[in-house]
């Protein structure tokens, strides 16, 4: 069977997907996992928890257990690009782990020991998500997502991440998920909805718009898998 894997870090994000896509059958496992069918696809949804380690581990687990033919990481993010507005969608062309720092050894900021820096999302899936969002009339932007094991809530630091990495949005899982998926041979798209401008007001805006952003993403993924 051609299984599709969906990943979401936050409970609210996962709940919106479960409701929108009717993925109510719970499976045993080290994470909260639900399954169902959408269109011609059997679908599994894994609620991974927050952070890069959790993201990479969940992707590897999904590959071994379900061997998905395609995967989508969905969730919310803080905007670094001033052109991004609340509830806009940001679709990753690539992502970087901006908290990785081995510059003492002559590496660029964010460059991994493997030599990788900007990890590409799957081009085919990314194009499909983009076309679907545009057909739905959703505001969507292609760009770069920066990931780290921290919630970025300081404006000056956010501006520095924007300057150094030319990143459009910031979150806590996507770059690690794409890296693990690439290593495991799992095509993956990474799409986020903006809840806030990364900075001092970010925690309040994040909580305010988390649910509505998650619902928008769930509607998009539902249409992608039904088309």
UniProtKB/TrEMBL annotation:
A cellular component term, taken from the record's GO annotations: cytosol
GO terms (BP aspect): L-methionine salvage from methylthioadenosine; L-methionine salvage from S-adenosylmethionine; nucleoside catabolic process
Pathway(s) served: Amino-acid biosynthesis; L-methionine biosynthesis via salvage pathway; S-methyl-5-thio-alpha-D-ribose 1-phosphate from S-methyl-5'-thioadenosine (hydrolase route): step 1/2
NCBIfam families: MTA_SAH-Nsdase
Domain Nucleoside phosphorylase intervals: 9-225
Enzyme class: hydrolase
Species assigned in the record: Meiothermus ruber
EC number of the protein: 3.2.2.9
InterPro entries the record matches: MTA_SAH_Nsdase, Nucleoside_phosphorylase_d, Nucleoside_phosphorylase_sf
Protein name: adenosylhomocysteine nucleosidase
Cited Pfam families: PNP_UDP_1 (PF01048)
This protein's UniProt keywords: Amino-acid biosynthesis, Glycosidase, Hydrolase, Methionine biosynthesis
PANTHER family found in the cross-reference section: 5'-METHYLTHIOADENOSINE/S-ADENOSYLHOMOCYSTEINE NUCLEOSIDASE, 5'-METHYLTHIOADENOSINE_S-ADENOSYLHOMOCYSTEINE NUCLEOSIDASE
Gene Ontology MF: a single term: adenosylhomocysteine nucleosidase activity
């Amino acid at each position: 069977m051609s299984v599709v894997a969906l990943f979401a870090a936050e409970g609210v994000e996962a709940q919106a997907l479960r409701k929108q896509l009717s993925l109510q059958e719970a499976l045993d496992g080290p994470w909260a996992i639900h399954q169902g069918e959408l269109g011609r696809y059997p679908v599994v949804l894994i609620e991974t928890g927050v952070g890069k380690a959790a993201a990479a581990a969940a992707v590897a687990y999904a590959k071994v257990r379900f061997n998905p033919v395609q995967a989508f990481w969905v969730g919310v993010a803080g905007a670094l690009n001033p052109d991004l507005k609340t509830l806009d969608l940001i679709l990753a062309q690539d992502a970087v782990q901006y908290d990785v720092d081995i510059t003492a050894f002559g590496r660029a900021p964010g460059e991994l020991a493997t030599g990788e820096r900007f990890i590409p999302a799957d081009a085919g899936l990314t194009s499909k998500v983009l076309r679907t969002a545009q057909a739905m009339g959703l505001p969507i932007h292609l760009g770069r997502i920066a990931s780290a094991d921290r919630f970025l809530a300081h404006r000056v630091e956010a501006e520095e991440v924007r300057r150094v990495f030319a990143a459009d949005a910031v979150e806590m899982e996507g770059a690690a998920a794409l890296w693990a998926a690439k290593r495991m041979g799992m095509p993956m798209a990474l799409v986020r909805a903006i809840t806030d401008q990364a900075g001092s007001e970010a925690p309040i805006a994040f909580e305010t718009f988390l649910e509505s952003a998650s619902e928008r993403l769930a509607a998009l993924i539902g249409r992608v898998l039904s088309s």
